[in-house]
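Two proteins were folded this term; both appear here.
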Amino acid sequence: MPGAARGGRRPGRRRWDRDLPLRDSEGAATGRCRVHMGAADEKGRAMTGAGSGETTTVAPGRSSAGGSLGRDVVARAVGVHKEYVMGGEIVRALQGVDLDVYRGEYLAIMGPSGSGKTTLFNMIGGLDKPTRGMVFIDEVDVAQLDAYELAWLRCRKIGYIFQSFNLLPALTALENVMMPMLFANVDPDEARDKAVEILRRVGLGDRIFHRPARMSGGQQQRVAIARAMANDPAIVLADEPTANLDLHTGKAIIDLLKELSRTLNVTVVSATHDHKMLNICDRVVWIRDGKIERIELRENLKITVGSIDGQEE
């Protein structure tokens, strides 16, 4: 189980106050706010407008701009560029990407190898920072955060599901799901009760004391989903979650993700080539050569085996 951090303190105990910029939907600065983050700040943030002297509590995921048609924007990319230097050459992975991700939606990101799909996926998840431009997660510009603050944000606001499951083999299903809650300084008894509840919800109530080696691939992915949901995240990132599963099991995992997205109002962002997953998503984003090629509502797409809108995929 996670132990204490340096000096005997759990990671979640540290608090920090920062003045961060407020921006409109075009990325223009509209003012500044004081953000308080720490162990006592799991359901909201106290924000004080500069010069106003007023303090309000903003629910996680509520965009100051409100998003398209008044929808909550939980993540936003504004003019995002990402460049790497490889072998003395500059590789432009992203070139001016703009994207709003809405609360409660199921978003699929598609693109060929080298298109920038994974880089954009990592930006939305706070795993990387842009070279230029801004990425907001729950209204906070990730470029303004240091390594500790990014870790705090990722632990409490984002859940991760990997195609290779990434469960700790020495821990039971219960302990794997408890892990992120303990890192977030949740009381161990509360974490245990919640982990049992989530595992039952994903259909593993009879497997809570099993280690990964004693579970099938589908069961391991269900544990990974339960772990991703442990801290009530605003966003769940699913990286090819059905890639290592058979057809029947993959469909069950897709249906489970959709159900959790709908019932818990959690945003799911998936990088995928699985047409079954596209069938249940709300929007599809195509990215090519570091730029968004198009964004379509699922209802406007005709998906058949091997093609989308008549184009082979």
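Next, the second protein.
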Amino acid sequence: MKPTTGWRELTPPLRLAAHPDTVAKARRFAVGVCTEVGLDPHEPVLVLAELATNALTHAGAYGGLELRAVRLGNMLSLECWDEYPCHVTIPEREPDLSAESGRGLWIARQLAAGLAVTHHGSGKAVCAMFDLIPAYGRLPQPSPTQNPYAPRLVAAGETFDVVEVDELLGRAVLAVLRTRNVPIGPVLHDRRHRKIGFLIPPTPVNDIPPRDRRTSPRHHGQGAWITFPPPGQPNGGPLTWLIEPTTHHLTDLRRLRTAITEAAHTLTSRARPGVE
């Protein structure tokens, strides 16, 4: 049964027989889909190649496989269908090095936003989900030698940028984003300098031009260093997270820019004499 909301097949299903170049065709299929939806293909290509390899290994003698690409709202589902009549579960833990199966699904689970198996009739479908909104970015994780409870200095421009605004405007921007149901990534709060910083995917610096003294957003990108406070920092600290980096989501720049403009207009209107 197809979902009734936000469901759209992006390309006709691709039927593949068991052949030495099948995995290469699966990679090309993933690249084409990602190009269409504007998604970085690196992880989807790796995942679909793992799923295709897994299907060929276990189901190649049962009629090959079929690849499908479906958009579900703001999610991309890359699906590998086969006719192998066996029950499959996604590994909860990394398989032992001596295990003969399960590693491909484990790798796919680590790279995708979600992984699920649907059993149908005589076979099954393994579906890998990827976020389409906001644009992708990855927050650098502390190394094993770093104290996870200490602040750390992180270079911007590689995996994220920061758009910084004054505190009053920043809180108004947050209200606009929440009202519009926009996914919000991590948000920094510099209490000492009364600034709020929104983490966004890496973008050419100065993509947000300062419009007036009230907005004056600053874009920190390549060459900038950003202090990350430790998670769970008390609200009384000079630098805290208003929204902690619990996922890889970063705020979409286009939507953030629109929210800044709307919030600045609202604040300016309220400041005019005679305006409530």
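Confidence is low (pLDDT under 50) at residues 1-5, 210-215. The chain has two domains: 7-131, 152-271. These notes refer to the second protein only.
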